Amino acid sequence: MRYHPHTEADRTTMLQRIGVANIDDLFASVPVDKRIDGLLDLPQSQSEMEVEAHLGKLAARNIPAGSVPFFVGAGAYRHHVPASVDHLIQRSEFLTSYTPYQPEISQGTLQVLFEFQTQVAHLTAMDVANASMYDGSTATAEAVLMASRITRRKKAVLAGGLHPHYRDVVETVSDMAGETTVALPPDPEGAESILDAIDEETACVVVQSPSFYGHLIDLRPIAEKAHAVGALLVAVFTEVVALGAIEPPGAQGADIVVGEGQSIGNPLTFGGPYVGLFATRQKYLRQMPGRLCGETVDAEGRRGFVLTLSTREQHIRRDKATSNICTNSGLCALAFTIHMTLLGENGLSRLAHNNHANAVVLAEALSQISGVSVLNETFFNEFTIRVPGDAAETVGALTRAGVLGGVPVSRLEPERPELADLMVVAATETNTDADRDAFVTAMREVA
What we know:
Blueprint: H1 8-18, H2 48-59, H3 83-89, H4 92-95, H5 107-124, E1 128-129, H6 136-151, E2 155-158, H7 164-176, E3 180-183, E4 202-208, H8 220-228, E5 232-237, E6 256-260, E7 276-280, E8 293-297, E9 303-307, H9 330-367, E10 373-374, E11 382-386, H10 391-400, E12 407-408, H11 409-412, E13 422-426, H12 433-446
Helix pairs in contact: 3-9, 5-9, 6-7, 9-12
């Protein structure tokens, strides 16, 4: 029996009030080629057992990341997560908690968020961080909107090394907000000169380091040029472990730092949920989106924690809100905080150096294969290689040989045929000598 909460008259009234002729007009911003015409080709009904059996067969087609040599990255990374992290986040006081609106009974959750913010601020070398965003891509889009509010300008320049998914999210959100984006061409060689694209109309320049292609970017000259014309530098990262080895963006002049925190405490989980990190300078605090947890004292002078400066749509009028993101990735942020606490500063540094060392060994081995070349002079744990022929076919052949060898750039840049022979390869502390040998042997046979 189907249940329709609204009558035809109800729907007509709502459409008239909104000012559109029909329901399809509500999806006018979705490109026509992205819409589904009619119903999906699915059975109208099946029993629970039939559905379970079918989904089980589909799931069995996946190759679990831990079952074969795994070198896939491009924004989501396989790292070792200690068992204690999963054990602690499943404690009922954490797992079942949601919004800490009543601080007198939410001190544990609020303290975790406060510790999380402190860790992110230290990692990025920024003054203040919020209590997390949905993920790195939406955090980047929010940073662009924040820069526009601060500078009162409408144009964002997106570097060619920005992750394609992040670029797409920024362009979508900016378009809906009436902002302009200038996306520079992809930069697989790491030779881009972004300075010429920054002018007096620029609100912010968005630069990822390590870039999508793995290059380490010196942010200082970009920050200097941006500041000289009154623009802001938004620094982006997708691999937070890199901050254990490279100079943090805040020390290089970034005004807003955003990125993905999945690598610490959070498994791959087929692409989510993840945890967006967001940090900025003290002077921009009131323009920062999302939740912010602050430290205070109670009536008896005891240390306590509260939500503060939360200019979100749930707290004030929507037209005054800094963000429409109305929650934070609390459980993922908790996992991040627990793992980071277990690592400590020295542990994170050792983890980062192990990642880099593994990547260097792999890059050197791959570069010895005839027809394969490494494009990077500098990288952290991820780099780009050029292979003979089509990289997507190469990745498929490697998979059939029992190695998940990387991500073909064409998968994320399908409209750029000149990038079809490139693949992004990631190496982490989870890769063994045997894994690397298997990858190199399979690549030699495929190439």
